[in-house]
Automatic annotation (TrEMBL):
UniProt source species: Rhizomicrobium palustre
Dienelactone hydrolase domain location: 11-227
Enzyme Commission number(s) from the entry: 3.1.1.45
EC category name: hydrolase
Protein name: Carboxymethylenebutenolidase
Keywords, sorted A to Z: Hydrolase
One Pfam match: DLH
Record carries keyword Electron transport: no
Amino acid sequence: MIDITTADGTFSAYLATPPSGKGPAIVLLQEIFGVNAVMRELADFYAAQGFFALVPDLFWRLQPGIELTDKTQEEWQAAFGYMQRFDTSLGIQDVQATITHARTLPGVTGKVGAVGYCLGGFLAYLTAVRTDVNASVGYYGMNIDKFLGEAANLKKPLMLHDAGKDEFNPPEKQKLVADFFADNPLVTIHRYPEMGHAFARPGGAHYDDANAILANGRTITFFKQHLG
């Protein structure tokens, strides 16, 4: 764990380092469960692929160090409560602070990407249009359709992974986003028709190994292309 200092205070981030000790960096944007074992496992995965991987504690303004799972109803209720209280604009400021910090880490080659899941998938889009990130990837992000007015600020590549049977982000909303970006060369959208929300969450109820491997492979290729 490392500390990142902002004008509003200091928050923690989990850092995974690539075996070579050098490479681009990726900021991982959490689900609604905080910086838990799943997010740390994903960071370790990206580090093994040659990236520095940082997972900032984006709920620190509500309560630092939240670690929940998707295994009990009580934890789901707590997670939704944090999500409802989460200030998106302040969260993106913290993402920018993490991106800026990542560029100063010894061994980081300069370029920084962002990848988010669930809540983080939505934040990945906002990161793409509100920060100086070099490339962004969002997995099954919700509510992107409500923020398409900010798309004019998109200057760097964006990839989205949509779950065709996402109970939190229905197909009609996915189509709105896909149609909006259909002619934008910066945006790539992959749809997984039979998948439910969080199909790439290791150990989750909807986890699908084949589609998770496919999506993650696309993400790694995307980052190697744009952060290399």
